[in-house]
Amino acid sequence: MAATPILIIDDDESLRRVMEYTLEEAGHRILTAQDAEAGLKIFAREEPFLVITDIQMPGMSGYEVLKRIKAESPETLVIIVTAFGTVDQAVSAMKEGAYDYITKPFSRDALRLTVARALSFRGLREENRQLRQRLGDQIEFEHLVGISKRMGTVFDIVRRVAPSDATVLVSGESGTGKELIARAIHSGSDRRDRPFVPVNCAAIPRDLLESELFGHIKGAFTGAVKDRRGKFELADGGTLFLDEVGELPFELQAKLLRALQEKEVEPVGGGPRRVDVRVVAASNRDLEAAKAEGKFRDDLYYRLAVIPIHLPPLRERRDDIPLLVRHFLAKHDVGGLRLSAAVLEHLERYDWPGNVRELENAVERMILLRRGEGIEVEDLPAGLSSKPSGPRGVLHLPADGYPLEDLEREAILEALERHHGNQTRAAAFLRIPRHVLIYRMEKYNLKKQH
Fold first, then answer.
1. I need a labelling partner for 430 at 20 to 30 A (CA). Which of 194, 204, 218, 345 fits?
2. How far is Cα 420 from Cα 426, in angstroms, rounded to an integer?
3. pLDDT tens digits for 26-57?
4. Which CATH code, of 1.10.760.10, 3.40.50.970, 3.40.50.1110, 1.10.8.60, is assigned to 315-389?
C-alpha cells in the first residue's frame, strides 16, 4: 500500500524538519514547503490527503492557505499549527473548514495522534461515501456523528446488518442515540419505504401496553368501542423499534416472543394475525443482569439479541465531542459562531451523564443565552464552568501518599458500579481482559459485592 501523502507548510525550518521526520517514522510520505505559495504549487501537483500549515507565515497566512485549499478541494483535511495565545485564530479557522489545530510547542506524540485522528476521520468519511453509493444513499448517518474507534465499530456493524432482516438489540445509557441507530438500520434496509414505528415501552401504562403493541377488537374491554390496530400491525412491512424493552412486563414477554417467532400477533379479544415486521429493540438496563435475576426471559433475550450493538457513553468517546459540537452548531444554523478554546476544553473534560442528548441541550442553551458574539466560559451552563474534570484530572492523591493497591481496588469498584456489575463491560472500560478483572476482584475480595 502506498504511503499516505501529507503536505507540511511552515516557514520554521527546524520545526518543519522535526514534523517531517516524526511523520515519516510513522510510515507517511511527506511533502514540505517553506511558504504558502510553494505549498499551494505542491498541493496542486501532488493532491495530498492532508495538509498541515502554520497559521502565521510571511506573505500569505495559513488562514488563506486553508481557504484556497477548501475552495479547490473541500474533501482535503487541513490541520492548523498555531502558537500559544493565537488559539482563537485556529478555532476561527476550524469554522472555515479546518479539521483540527495543534498548539506550539507540541510533542511528537501529540503530532502523531492528531494526524492519526485526521486520517481515521478521512477513512471513515470515505467508507460512508462508498456505503451510500452501494445502498443508494439510503443509510441516514447524518445525525450519527463520531470519528472515535468505538463509534467506528458501531457504524461498521450497522452497515453490515442493515440490509438483513436480523433482530437487533441496541444497549447503552440514556441519551446515547439508540433510536438514531434503529433509524439508520431501517433506512439501510429493503424496508426503507415502509413504516418505521417507535414505541417507548417505559412510557405506556402497563394495563394499556398489550393493546398498544398488539391491538384489540371492539368490546374486548371497557372503553374498546372499535377495533384498533397495534404497533406491530402499523409497522407491517417495515421496522418496529421497541425502546426500553427491559421495562416490558414479564407477562407480556411471552407474547412478544411468540410475535417474533411465529410472525403473528394476537389482538386483545381477537385471533392471530400475520405480520411481517423487523424488530429493533433497545434498553438502557443491563438485560443480562435482569435475565440472571429472573426479570427478563432468557429465550426472549436471545431472540432479541441476534445482533447486539452497544453504544458507548460520551465520556468513553471524548474524541467525538468537538465534532458533535460543530454538528449541533450547524443544526441550529449557527455554524460560524465562535467557540473559545477554553469552552471546548471544558466540554471535552466533563463526564456528560446525560450523554449526547445533554451535550446538545448544553450547546443550544449556550447559543440562546450567550452574552457576546461568541461563546465564552461564562456562557457555560452551571456545573460545566467549574474546573474541568476528566482524563487529565482523574487522580487527586493526598500529599502524604496513597497505596497503589487501594487505588486499583477503587478503580475496579467504580468500573463495576458504572456498568451495573457487568464484568465484561467493566473489563473493557479498564482496558484489561475479563479474566484479569475476575482475578483482581478475587484478590480484593470484591466478587460477592457485585
1. 345
2. 9
3. 888 999 999 999 999 999 998 898 999 998 88
4. 1.10.8.60
